[in-house]
Design a protein that fits this description.
This protein is an all-alpha fold. It has one domain. It is built from 7 helices and no strands. α3 packs antiparallel against α4 and α3 packs across α5. The longest helix is centred in the last third of the chain and has 67 residues. The chain is globular, with a radius of gyration of 20 Å.
Length: 258
């Protein structure tokens, strides 16, 4: 009986692995369709290109794989949502750079070789970054149209709500894709935690955009590293992480009772 159970477990894991790979291919196909039918239009002005290059280098230097999703997702979501507002289509490239960096460091930290980054998981993450970027660009396009017809006195309020909505759009798109993948692989994922992280990230994105508009890229970098990353966001993420652990413990307890 034990052998039969082990065989069934192996078959189940094999099926889930195949389903995950098919899903990653589907995401990659969908992202290519988006790129083909809605080709990105990059701002090629020198100032924009230099700024994007600096942000890309910053992401490569700063992003690290972590065990707690909130710790990485809130800052990264905020940066990429803000990039959608400030840099437009360059968000796609920045998102891919960020996720490739995280994936590369994850592979190395797990004892893998650099070549191991070429995998279905990486393909799925790059596709997810592309899809979420398009969602952000679409959301900001709608907000921009709304701002164009908004009375001047209400512009700041509409911009605040709009940028927060853009941040939530990124998080929602990423959450939906991630949730389906984890369910296919037989893993539980905390939806409530993702929602809380999205709200934090969306507000964070607005602060980054406001800082960029006021003081430029240098001021935004200082704000990210010195103020928000350490003082404000990490405190909130600490609470979010504890809530996530509590939810996970409750789920495990309910599983034992059953």
């Amino acid at each position: 009986m034990a052998l039969a159970g082990d065989h069934a477990h192996t078959n189940g894991e094999s099926w889930r692995a195949i389903a995950g790979n098919i899903y990653a291919l589907g995401l990659a196909t969908f992202s290519l369709v988006l790129l083909y039918f809605f080709p990105p239009h990059f701002d090629l002005r020198i100032g924009t290109v230099v700024s994007v290059a600096i942000v890309a280098i910053f992401l490569v230097l700063m992003e690290r794989p972590v065990k707690t999703p909130a710790t990485i997702m809130a800052p990264l979501t905020a940066i990429l949502s803000a990039a959608g507002v400030v840099f437009g289509a360059w968000t796609i490239a920045l998102a891919i750079v960020a996720w490739l960096t995280v994936r590369f460091r994850a592979v190395i930290s797990e004892g893998g070789r650099p070549v191991d980054i070429f995998s279905m998981i990486t393909l799925g993450q790059v596709a997810t970054a592309t899809i979420a970027s398009y969602a952000v660009l679409g959301a900001w396009n709608l907000v921009s149209r709304l701002l164009a017809v908004t009375p001047h006195a209400l512009n700041n309020l509409v911009a605040l709500v709009g940028i927060i909505a853009v941040g939530l759009t990124w998080q929602t798109a990423n959450n939906l894709v991630t949730y389906v993948y984890h369910r296919l692989r037989g893993r539980r994922i905390g939806v409530a935690q993702m929602l809380r992280t999205g709200v934090v990230a969306a507000i964070y994105a607005y602060l980054l955009v406001a800082t960029y508009k006021f003081g430029g890229l240098l001021a935004t970098t200082i704000f990210y590293i010195v103020v928000a990353q350490i003082k404000v966001v990490q405190d909130i993420l600490g609470v979010t992480t504890q809530l996530h652990k509590l939810e996970k413990a409750n789920d495990q307890a309910r599983g034992l009772v059953r």
